[in-house]
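quick one before i forget lol
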Amino acid sequence: MATRGSEIASELTALIYEGRWAPGDRLPAETDLADQFKVSRPTLRKALNAVASQGLIESIQGSGWYVRGDRRMRFPLDNIDRGAVATRDSVWNLWVRSLNRVPTHRLTVITTQPPRDVARHLRLGSEDYCLMRRRVRYVDDEPWMICDGYFPLDVVAGTPLATEGEGDAVDMHEPTPVAWLAAHGMAPHRSHSEIGARMPTEFEVNALAVNPTVPVMAMLTTSWTGQNRVIRCTVDIFPAHRFLLTTTREQS
């Protein structure tokens, strides 16, 4: 059941998105907002902090709360598959460097049971296992997104991709995992993506250092070879206050 503080946070968020206040505008004083919503100052402060955790407002000491401009980064989804096989570096790293920022990541490779949706796309049973290569990606040492790559065991068994562990010891740069598969007869021929929005899991809250009230966009992408063999399913987690996902289509 939603608390009064979370209800107020939702109302304030809606007002900001509706344009009640423009970027740079000062919100009404806390005492006025508390009177408007008929709550105590501590309850109102919790609501304001929840809105601030989404990157929508900020507190300036001695002045009040102000609406922030849209600071979401435009991430071009078209670039994920374009050149993913040929590049010596990840699309993520190339994109972050294009913004004059520093990309890093933390990699963990384990054998595990995949989430239900992933298992369905990999054509696995409810008790089957697969290999997961999890990357928590950072921008300027701040965790920004999670990229989980799931591979059927019959695809990666006995390959460098299947080496379990953490960090550089299990990373692959030249070639990248996708490039390695392509070089060994398993090039991605087609892919399908599904994008949805939801609230973050406890792991995502901790790994990404986000407030649990901030929604995330989850993109599940499945890749097949030309022989219709499933080779990979990725789950990319984008905190909604950090990203604006874009795609471009050319009309014939």
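fyi The longest helix spans residues 4-17.
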